[in-house]
């Protein structure tokens, strides 16, 4: 009987049949090994066990006396059935044998931080984990994927755990799907489409509130990175970096944590998010750090390396990254895009340097060159940055009255950093309400549609312009005649005051109908 | 957010408002008024703690004013500057009795 004794755990390999003919011998044999090794834990590996009768089951119970926590592993489905029927699965820990899957020659369709995804047949893919002992990771990923699905994120959940060589894998159904990396590599004309879908999904993720305690807080993780880096950075940079990260406000919205184009799949017409193990909560800047790394940070010194990883060129990656930022932030303004990217770079480099040092990067010439490059940029960026958060220029919401608070809250936050007199702030809030409510009530009635609200602030002279865009019926609210405000109460009509108030309190109100969109812009000087 | 405090004293109906009178909260005031306005001869709207009003709030005031002109009188008291400005721009300063 083969056995293996390691770090207090004795593993005994059962094989063939255990029935009344040999049960007694098997028991003595096992007992002899136990007496010999005196283990703390006992594991019976049943990979080669074909059959066990009730006589065999009785000897298992004897071992339970001295080893109440002993486990039987790699149990075949035939033997599992016997253990299950006789109630043994409730008394002892029984682990089923995993189906064996061979990925030799299978197409690699994705690669994440902790594993690689292969297509094993037309309908199924397997994610093979880098870590040989990945069962806890697999369990974790299953749980977070389930949580994400319940919260409204389209994703695939694994339905089986398999053995792939010495590693474990989890199997997902993924029909006919291709990754966004593949689309960008083979159909570059679809880049703009990919940008829109990628940002749509990103906004869905970032708009998803996660119940307290369900996902790790990415800010805490970033604080750990910075702690690790202290001894490698000039003191001034290190302490400023720590206060920058600590000043990121807590945020209970979801972030993916490894959001690049290999982790977004197009399945028929549906976009699916995969590789969910890095799911967390936090401010979007923490997400942009990993996005920056995936398209640029990792490859800053070796532009060609991205081709091996993503399948598309460095140039395509840069075009994609800038367009994603523009779409997400709702601005074409290069200065604004770079401002946010620079903040993302601070967190991105922090992560890259730590990662490289932990992987012995300081011991190779290439590693040292990379670490130096990232470190110099990090020092420069930290020096000129006062905060890592950024304000959004654009909000995209379902145009309902329920979302009024979201809209006014968004506009107020966008104006927060400018010194806006209270009276002006109130007038802007009033105009925003009047226009938004008009869209919510009439643009799509009786159906519901979406509205975009974009805020732009000019510095000199300080002036805000807010644009409302909907795809509803063409309607020019400015064409309506102003109410006569000199009439008496009896003669006054109820209603029609909203747009009038807006025109009176704003410096400029413009309307145009373009490309199937109602576009209304209000402007106000501070 | 809008808090409405109602007081009825014989024919005198008083509403003290606190917070915001906007599209979301105005229907609450509208139904509170509708519930109690029958038989009232005097309606007082106390705006001491009202911070904000939009056209939805103005509509409720105009409609209450029209009703009260049939059965008594209405006045708005303790109006702050921001709300007063809205009244002025829309001509409500002239059609409402403001103290």
Verbal overview:
The complex is a heterodimer of chains A (526) and B (99). Chain A is of the alpha+beta class. Chain A is built from 17 helices and 21 strands. In chain A, the strands form 5 sheets. Chain A has a 6-stranded mixed beta sheet with strand order 6-10-11-9-8-7, with no helix packed on it. In chain A, strands 1-2-3-4-5 form a 5-stranded mixed beta sheet. In chain A, α8 (218-229) crosses α13, α10 (284-295) packs across α13 and α15 (404-416) runs antiparallel to α16 (422-443). Chain A is elongated, with a radius of gyration of 30 Å. Chain A starts with a strand and ends with a strand. Chain B is of the alpha/beta class. Chain B has a single domain, classed as STAS domain (Transcription Regulator spoIIAA). Chain B contains 4 helices and 4 strands; from the N terminus they run ββαβαβαα. Chain B has helices at 26-36, 55-71, 81-89, 92-95; strands at residues 2-9, 12-21, 42-53, 73-77. In chain B, α1 (26-36) runs parallel beside α2. The interface between A and B is medium-sized, with 27 and 24 residues.
Question: Tags for this entry?
Answer:
A: 526 residues, alpha+beta, Transcription Regulator spoIIAA, Aminoglycoside 3'-phosphotransferase, Chain: A, domain 2, 6-stranded mixed beta sheet, 5-stranded mixed beta sheet, elongated, B: 99 residues, alpha/beta, 4-stranded mixed beta sheet, 4 strands
Q: CATH fold name of chain B, please?
A: Transcription Regulator spoIIAA
Class from secondary-structure proportions of chain A? alpha+beta
Shape of chain A: elongated
How would you classify the quaternary structure? heterodimer
Describe the biggest sheet of chain B? 4 strands, mixed
Chains forming the largest contact: A-B, 27 and 24 residues
């Amino acid at each position: 009987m083969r056995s293996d004794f390691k770090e207090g755990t004795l593993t005994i390999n059962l094989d063939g049949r255990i029935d009344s003919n040999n049960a007694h011998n098997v028991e003595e044999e096992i007992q002899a090994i136990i007496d010999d090794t005196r283990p703390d834990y006992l594991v019976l590996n049943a990979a080669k066990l074909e059959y066990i009768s009730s006589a065999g089951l009785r000897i298992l119970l004897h071992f339970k006396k001295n080893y109440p926590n002993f486990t039987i592993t790699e149990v075949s489905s035939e033997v599992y059935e016997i253990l299950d029927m006789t109630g043994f699965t409730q008394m002892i820990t029984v682990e089923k044998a995993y189906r064996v899957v061979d990925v030799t020659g299978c197409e690699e369709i994705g690669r994440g931080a902790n594993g690689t995804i292969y297509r094993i047949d037309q309908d199924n893919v397997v994610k093979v984990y880098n870590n040989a002992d990945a069962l806890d990771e697999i369990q974790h990923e299953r749980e977070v994927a389930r949580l994400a699905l319940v919260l409204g994120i389209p994703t695939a959940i694994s339905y089986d755990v398999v053995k792939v060589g010495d590693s474990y894998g989890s199997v997902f159904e993924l029909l006919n799907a291709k990754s966004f990396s593949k689309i960008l590599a083979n159909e570059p004309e679809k880049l703009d489409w990919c940008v829109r879908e990628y940002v749509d999904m990103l906004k869905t993720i970032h708009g998803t509130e996660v119940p307290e305690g369900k996902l790790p807080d990415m800010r805490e993780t970033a604080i750990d990175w910075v702690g690790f880096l202290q001894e490698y950075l000039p003191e001034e940079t290190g302490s400023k970096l720590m206060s920058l990260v600590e000043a990121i406000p807590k945020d209970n919205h979801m972030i993916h944590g490894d959001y690049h184009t290999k982790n977004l799949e197009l399945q028929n017409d549906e976009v699916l998010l995969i590789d969910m193990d890095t799911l967390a909560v936090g401010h979007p800047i923490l997400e942009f750090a990993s996005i920056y790394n995936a398209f640029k940070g990792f490859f800053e010194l070796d532009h060609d390396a991205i081709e091996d990883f993503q399948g598309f060129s460095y140039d395509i990656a840069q075009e994609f990254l800038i367009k994603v930022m523009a779409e997400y932030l709702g601005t074409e303004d290069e200065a604004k895009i770079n401002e946010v990217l620079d903040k993302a770079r601070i967190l991105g480099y922090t992560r890259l340097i730590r990662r490289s040092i932990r992987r012995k990067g300081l011991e190779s010439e290439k590693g040292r060159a990379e670490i130096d490059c990232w470190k110099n940029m990090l020092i420069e960026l930290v020096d000129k940055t006062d905060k890592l958060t950024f304000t959004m220029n654009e909000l995209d919401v379902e145009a309902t009255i329920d979302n009024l608070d979201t809209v006014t809250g968004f506009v107020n936050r966008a104006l927060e950093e400018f010194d806006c007199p209270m009276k002006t702030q109130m007038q802007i809030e009033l105009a925003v309400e009047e226009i938004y409510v008009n869209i919510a009530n009439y643009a799509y009635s009786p159906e519901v549609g979406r509205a975009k609200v974009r805020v732009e602030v000019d510095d000199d002279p300080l002036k805000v312009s807010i644009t409302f865009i909907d795809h509803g019926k063409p309607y020019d609210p400015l064409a309506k005649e102003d109410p006569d405000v000199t009439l008496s109460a009896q003669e006054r009509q109820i209603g029609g005051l909203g747009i009038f108030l807006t025109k009176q309190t704003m410096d400029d109100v413009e309307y145009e109908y373009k490309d199937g969109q109602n576009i209304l812009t209000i402007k106000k000087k501070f | 957010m809008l808090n409405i405090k109602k007081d009825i004293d014989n024919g005198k109906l008083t509403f003290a408002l606190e917070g915001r009178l906007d599209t979301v909260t105005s229907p609450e005031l509208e139904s509170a008024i509708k519930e109690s306005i029958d038989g009232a001869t005097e309606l007082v709207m106390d705006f001491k703690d009202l911070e904000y009003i939009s056209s939805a709030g103005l509509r409720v005031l105009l409609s209450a004013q029209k009703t009260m002109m049939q059965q008594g009188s209405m006045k708005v008291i303790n109006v702050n500057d921001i709300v007063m400005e809205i009244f002025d721009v829309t001509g409500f300063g002239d059609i409402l009795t403001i103290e």
